[in-house]
Amino acid sequence: MTHTSHSVTASLPRRIVAGVVGGLAGGLIFGILMAMMGMLPMIASMVGSDSAALGFGIHLMISIGIGLGLTVLFGNWLLTSYPRGLVVGLVYGAVWWVLGPLIMMPLMLGMPLFVVDSTALLSLVGHLIYGAILGTVAVMILAKRR
After folding, report:
1. Dist CA 47 CA 69 (whole Å)
2. CA 46 – CA 50 distance, rounded (Å)
């Protein structure tokens, strides 16, 4: 089922809900993958810890924030159908893969930038999964009666 409605826009509160729920849904799945790969302590290291639980919490907060960025700023014109939401989510996930693990995290941790190794490629897969879930869940919420 595709829903396209270019003349009716979702309210800011609905776009906020879409960002929180979509970001949390994508973040939970991505976070489970990160836990399986042992990556959560690295997330926690951004605040001086090695706790996987803290890393998971930080990851979820980041996931929600990134979800809000998409839905609040762009939800009414980029998330207008399920296919479009999926594609936008995949692109958004790839963009955040470059911004997060390839630029911002290395800067915060004093590591080299743009290192694309097997860990980074697994992270790309996780970011794509996150974006796909974010985009489709957001469309589901935004497509409800406005």
Report:
1. 22
2. 9
